Amino acid sequence: MKNPIQLGLLLLTITALTVLGYNVYLREITPPVLTYTEFLAELRENNIEKIHLQGGVITGEDRAGRPFGTFAPDVSALIPLLQEKKVEISAEAQTESGAIDIFKSLLPLLLILGGWLIFSKKQSGGAFAHGSGRSTRFKPVESDLVTFKDVAGIAEVTEELQEVVEFLKKPEKYSRLGGRIPKGVLLQGAPGTGKTLLAKAIAGEASVAFFSMGGSDFVEIFAGVGASRVRELFVEAKKSAPCIIFIDEIDAIGGRRSGSSSSGSSDEREQTLNALLVEMDGFSSGETVIMIAATNRPDILDPALLRPGRFDRQITISLPDIKGRIKILEVHARKILASAEIDLEKIARSIPGFSGAEIANLVNEAALMAARRSKEAVEMDDFEEAKDKIIMGLARKSIVVSEKDRRITAYHEAGHAIVGLLLEETDPLHKITIIPRGRAMGLTQQLPLDERYTYSREYLQNRITTLLGGRTAETLVFNRLTTGASNDIIAATEIATRLICEWGMSEALGPIAYRQSVDGFLGSSTLVKPHSEMIARQIDVEIKQVIDTCSDEARAILKKHNKFLHKFAEALLINETMDAEEVDIVYRSYLKERELEQILTETRGNDDTCTQRNTNGI
Ligand code: ADP
Ligand code: ZN
Questions:
Q1: Is-above-0.85 flag for pTM?
Q2: 488 Cα to the center of ligand 2, angstroms
């Protein structure tokens, strides 16, 4: 806003909008307007209780207490009649009317200017794109059309949120015993995973009002606007309690506060965030207002937002796996006229990595495709073509996972899982998936059985071996290296380095801390103990040795259990996500097969010796 002309236009717009807002406001509070004749008739009928005169404007109440308004051409002529009918009269000098008249005559011009300004800014996607145009912002949105039935494939999440619904329905029941009611729920997940849908569904299930706002709507160019908007939102919401306030993209305001040296815009953002925190802390448990926020960048949120009493409940929504995609397809296929031969499972299998929103889009595209071909019902080939069209769009944004990448990922994750499973001292397997998350293609999660405070050298070494299992499996099967293992390699190197330099677990170097991680005021940093060139070389050798040993071990395990690796990867390609139990099933079936094979080779071996003996005998 450095340009003075721009600034001038801006001021004009604000004025115009203020007048417009005032007019809307007036219209809202103005009681029914009578014509002067109607008013006179009412007056003669003795129906008027009291009036208030302001210039020619008359407002008042009838005998039943109902307000009305009218305009009198000549007030003084009216007074005798009013007195005769014993109407209570109050009056006020007309002072600002001149100014208002000028405003009124200027209004069209101002509106045009303002409209043009907003329009041109919208076109250029400037800071005005949000907000300023709206005069009535915070109105609850109709939400009771959406319920949990419309949200498919994330049963664990809806179950967890059922409690929030219960609470919104019967707040007394919960607060009676003094329990602290949840105030905020943070939904985290990739775009299109149904966060907004879920928030609406909660409001729908509980039949409460739903207020919705995008985080970026709060961030305006004027100082203090975002903060006052937050306050406004809470005032409105409290009036409609019980209700839900949904803030989409909360990272737009809730990003980490920078502390010092902030630029103007981040200053504004911080004020807005502070206002939000104050409001959240401010409402008492008596007010049934629940905040739901959505983000796909939980990592950049200000920790203050996540403290108890704020968004202390965090729920992650991941991209749907095969079962989830089938369920979501079912929900959306209900809305279209699908032919009987539609195979939803087959469709679901062909769209790995699709989000809920993309699936909804797919169904819609397929219906349009069928309509374009004047079909009676939507058929498989419509889905096929819709899918190709969408995938092509996504491929341009390079978010589609090719079949080959899926295979590599499956072997990679299976590699981690098998090594972790077959080594003795490791954390048990929790969940393994080849559905991409964030930048990771897949994920193998191990959960420590109990909180660990100290780690043995065995455990750490096995952790490194498990980390290297992914890359090792890839090279064993595909005989080529990919970048998919970069995070594993970073993590493995980090552990190996600390093993040698921090925890003194190297025999050659002994228990000397050559490096020290310090968790300090400004994040963590590393202190390095001064040491000789020779020691430096030795450290490098030791680290490499640890990594090499672990790498060899991973390789040995995966080579030995090669069949398990294939079996596991195939199972992953089909199921996409597997929990510990499912992994166990695959493992046991592998063991059984191996046993069988051993018996077979043994008997065959016995036969061989028999023949040999016989031959020898002969
Ligand atoms: P987000 O807020 O996470 O970006 P939305 O809630 O806006 O995602 O999802 C967009 C649309 O995608 C929804 O309106 C719905 O039609 C569809 N959708 C997403 N997830 C699901 C789901 N789990 N079940 C059914 N439909 C879904
Ligand atoms: Zn990995």
A1: no
A2: 5
